[in-house]
Amino acid sequence: MGLLRFVLAAVLLGSAAAKLATGGRGRRALASYGLHGRRAAVAWAGTIALEAVLAVAVAAGVPGAAEAAAVVLGLFTLLLVVAIARGRAGQPCGCFGSRSRIGWGAAARSGCLAAAFAVLPFLPEGSLSTEAWLGVGLGVALVGVAALAVALLALARELGELRLAVAPQAALSLEHEGPELGGRVGLIERFERDTALKVAVFTSPSCSLCAALEPSLRLLGNDPGVELATFDEHDDADAWQSLAVPGSPYAVVLDSNGVVLSKGTFNSLYQLESLVGA
């Protein structure tokens, strides 16, 4: 009985890990059962948590855990049968990853697992040798490591999807703000090095974002082809006024002759580099 309990717990934990690994696809698979949006996300997370908790409880031999797992899997089987009756066979079921599909095979698998959990409490307890217990413990540890690896990969994929969904924006450049593009400004005289590009960055003492961007400014200033100079709103008020700077942080990119190549408000190194690249 002990070995069977650990095997069934590992199956339940593997199901939870497979759901977690699917990420957004797993949540969208719940549309096959009529769940969408927030309801699908809550059901997806709740199912993963429930299966993981039941797996640990079954492995630990908690009284009633096997019966609870049998009830849950019985409900899953019922949901699959109802979905098949509604003509949704072949659609994603979200059972064991994104490849699982609604069908009689999935219903039979879920039903068999429910039956196995149901009969588990009635099986006689058997005493395992020390070597057997060590083997079982090693197996559980390996399953746990595999589950953690799957969870880590799923988290990395979710972060990747988030970064793609929230794509970085370019600097805000309005034609009526700041100096005229293509015009020559006298600010070029404030630069000393012979570089192809001059970057004038306008900051304010009260601007917390300006202070946070100082490491990014130093990084860009280390570029041998770029000379970067900062102009404070109070100490360099004349420069602010002559270029009609709307606020800070603001950047103006000049060529070696003082011609304005690009301009705009920025709040990240990416946006500042977009002005230099433009």
List its salient traits.
single chain; alpha+beta; Glutaredoxin; four-stranded mixed beta sheet; elongated
Description:
With 278 residues, the protein is α+β, with helices and mostly antiparallel strands. 55% of the residues lie in helices and 9% in strands. The protein has helices spanning 2-22, 24-29, 37-60, 65-85, 104-119, 130-165, 208-212, 214-221, 237-243, 269-277; strands at 197-203, 226-232, 250-255, 260-265. The protein has a 4-stranded mixed sheet. The protein is elongated. 30% of the residues are buried.
Write the layout of secondary structure elements.
Elements: H1 2-22, H2 24-29, H3 37-60, H4 65-85, H5 104-119, H6 130-165, E1 197-203, H7 208-212, H8 214-221, E2 226-232, H9 237-243, E3 250-255, E4 260-265, H10 269-277
Parallel strand pairs: 1-2
Antiparallel strand pairs: 1-3, 3-4
Helix pairs in contact: 1-3, 1-6, 3-4, 4-5
